[in-house]
Structure formats: C-alpha cells, structure tokens
Write a structure and sequence with these properties.
Layout: E1 2-5, E2 22-32, E3 35-46, H1 49-64, E4 68-74, E5 77-84, E6 95-103, H2 112-126, E7 131-136, H3 140-149, E8 152-153, H4 159-164, E9 169-174
Parallel strand pairs: 6-7
Antiparallel strand pairs: 1-4, 2-3, 4-5, 5-6, 7-9, 8-9
Organism: Cellulosilyticum lentocellum (strain ATCC 49066 / DSM 5427 / NCIMB 11756 / RHM5)
GO molecular function: acyltransferase activity, transferring groups other than amino-acyl groups
InterPro entries: Acyl_CoA_acyltransferase, GNAT_dom
Length: 175
C-alpha cells in the first residue's frame, strides 16, 4: 500500500471509480436516557455517483481551507481516504475535525483505516490540536473500529455535527 497526501487537482470522479463505499448495517448504537444501547436498525449504504460528487466537493473544500486529505493506494488505485479540517473548535479550541475516513469494502480489516487514522492524528497533533473530533457512523462495526483506535465519547459535542447527523456517535481521540 502507498499512503500519501492528496491534492485538490486529484479530486474527481475518476479517483473513486474503483472505490466501493458499501455497508450492510444490522445494528447501531443509540443513546437512550443517557445510556448507550445497541438497537436493531437494518439498512444498506451503497454510494453512487451523487454521494461521491458530494464527498469530492467536501474534500476539495478541506484542502482549499488548509486541511489535509490522505489516500491509501493499492497498485495506483484509491482504496482508503481520510481528511482533517483545519479550523479549531471547542471551548478550549483544542479539537480538529476528522471529517472523513473511508476504506473500500474489499479492503476493510487489513489495517488501512488504522494507518489513515494514525496519519490524520499525527497531522492534527503537528497543527497544535489536542484532540480529534469524530462524528461517527453509529453502526456496531464502525464503532468497533473507533473503539479499537482508542476513541471515547466526546466531552464536548459539536452542535453542527449533532444537528446534521443526529444518529452519529460523537467521539474524540487524544492526539
């Protein structure tokens, strides 16, 4: 695998032509009356061109505003991506946002996500962050990944993230 920072010029549909953002979800974490519980919530995510167009627009914005986008490539083909925004937030201005992390379906479980997460964390620390903030998919599989990385429930919730994705789990990671 080759891991590297990506440029704005690389952000197009061609980059994602062999990327498979697909996930069958059966159970999700939900916070009910202050307690985390696993609930049945079956659905399937299968990104098409429109979802990739939205992601590309977001990633370009990340780069244009001083953030970073990392890619993982196998034989020149994108298999994983992570991004960190450049704007600090929180009451102590200590958080940077891990705005995306995705691994193509056929490559999950091979350590790619872990490497991309560590690269994002290192970049955030070098920029002066104390913590990464993650508004994370609530599926049990996604949450297992973040727990394995050492993430915990965020001490401060980012209101914008909660309003945009009320079912996401709001996490943090000390960098």
């Amino acid at each position: 695998m080759e891991y590297r920072a990506l440029s704005t010029e690389e952000m197009d549909l061609e980059l994602f032509k062999e990327f498979k953002r697909h996930q069958v979800v059966t159970k999700c974490w939900r916070k009910i009356d202050g307690n985390w519980v696993v609930k049945d919530n079956p659905f399937e995510e299968n990104w098409g061109e429109e979802e990739y167009r939205i992601l590309i627009k977001c990633l370009k914005h990340t780069l244009e505003t001083g953030g970073i986008v990392f890619g993982a490539f196998k034989e020149g083909i994108l298999k994983g991506i992570s991004s960190v925004e450049s704007e600090f937030f929180g009451s102590n201005q200590e958080y940077l946002d891990l705005s995306s992390i995705h691994v193509s379906e056929e490559m999950r479980g091979m350590g790619i996500g872990k490497q991309l997460f560590q690269m994002a964390s290192t970049w955030a620390r070098e920029k002066g962050a104390k913590k990464l903030y993650i508004s994370a998919h609530s599926s049990i599989e996604s949450q297992a990944f973040y727990k394995a990385m050492g993430c915990v429930e965020a001490l401060e919730y980012n209101k914008e993230h909660v309003e945009k994705e009320p079912c996401d789990c709001q996490l943090e990671y000390i960098v």
